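Team,

Forwarding the record for the chain on the shared tracking sheet. I've put the sequence and predicted structure together so nobody has to dig through attachments.
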Amino acid sequence: MKATYLLLLLLCLPLFVSCRNHKFKTPQFCRKPRVPGLCRASIPRWGFIPYLGVCMQFVYRGCGGNRNNFSSCQECLFRCAGRLSKRKRCLYLPYTFGAYHKAG
């Protein structure tokens, strides 16, 4: 019986170690700059800043842009910083833009 548990432990240990050492690789689209777009809308969105490892709020104009454009900071962090990220921060716009401003 003890031999079975020992064998099971030895088989599972490499899986545990490899999971702990896994590094999250930021997707290519998260490395692109935040692009506000070309139209005249004023939509609050979130984009990843790779060199800081944070998501920052920006105003999307409603058309154009790229995939570094998320509806929430949580989605941005999940997709671009990964679950294994230790630095999870959201940077909000410091001012009211048009009729929209939502802090917190």
